[in-house]
Write a structure and sequence with these properties.
Length: 270
């Protein structure tokens, strides 16, 4: 092979090598372009997702802010409502007190009128009977100035049953003062204690103790002792309550209150 032939072959090989290198570079460039496009597409999608997430987060924060503002407004309204309700409740209580006072006065007035009418009717009836029996005899004897013991006692008891303890108390106190030897003085004293039970336990205890001391043979005595035990329990004095219950059981073993006292002793300690 001569020199010319070698040069020709070498030139052809070089040309072929050069052509192969350009093709590979073109493919590499194409792949790079595609990779960049895919990366750009992914970056765009990620940016869009991130924007959506940030927008959602902002909406959540806005909703939380609105919720907090609404909650604060609701709490303010609730506090205002509580204040208004407390004021209204106080006003209603004051009105109830006034109504109860007026009702008690009205009931007392009605009771007085009723007892006066009953007493007047009794006087007229007694006068008529005296005229019929004595003919032309003297029937002008003075009648009692006030209601009878029965009228005063029953009227006061009715007031207590109707829920007017203040009116009932005045009636029973007047009964005890006017008829100190009546067989129902122990009952009246006990009911005076009952009229105090809801508003002044200490005053009630004074009258219950008076019944237990001054009228030990009365049927109200075991009730009074039992009531004293209940009041002592409410006053957080279990020792005193125990003593009263034991007195009921010892002194009045056959009474209904003795059975109740035994049950109460189980609570305060026998």
């Amino acid at each position: 092979m001569n020199r010319f032939t070698r040069l020709t072959l070498l030139s052809g090989v070089f040309v072929l090598g050069a052509c192969a290198t350009k093709g590979d570079l073109q493919r590499v460039e194409d792949q790079l372009v595609l990779s960049r496009q895919e990366t750009a597409r992914r970056d765009s999608a990620a940016a869009a997702s991130l924007a959506d997430i940030m927008a959602l987060q902002q909406r959540i924060l806005d909703s939380l802010g609105q919720g907090q503002r609404r909650l604060a407004a609701l709490q303010g309204s609730l506090q205002s409502f509580k204040g208004d309700m407390n004021t209204e409740l106080y006003n209603v209580q004051q009105q109830l007190v006034q109504v109860q006072a007026l009702t008690g006065q009205s009931q007392q007035r009605l009771t007085d009128l009723r007892t006066q009418l009953d007493a007047r009717s009794e006087q007229l009836g007694a006068a008529a009977r005296g005229d019929a029996a004595a003919g032309a005899g003297d029937s002008t004897k003075p009648a009692p100035a006030g209601p009878s013991a029965d009228q005063m006692y029953e009227g006061s008891l009715n007031q207590l049953r109707r829920g007017s303890p203040g009116t009932a108390r005045m009636g029973f106190q007047q009964f005890v003062k006017t008829f100190p030897s009546d067989r129902r003085v122990a009952d009246a004293t006990f009911f005076i204690g009952e009229s105090f039970a809801g508003e002044s336990p200490d005053s009630a205890a004074v009258y219950y103790a008076e019944v237990a001391k001054d009228f030990p043979k009365s049927s109200r005595a075991p009730s009074a002792l039992y009531k004293l035990g209940l009041l002592a329990e409410r006053a957080k004095d279990p020792a005193a309550a125990k003593g009263y219950y034991q007195r009921v059981i010892k002194n009045y073993p056959a009474s209904d209150e003795a059975a109740l006292a035994r049950d109460r002793l189980k609570s305060v300690g026998s």
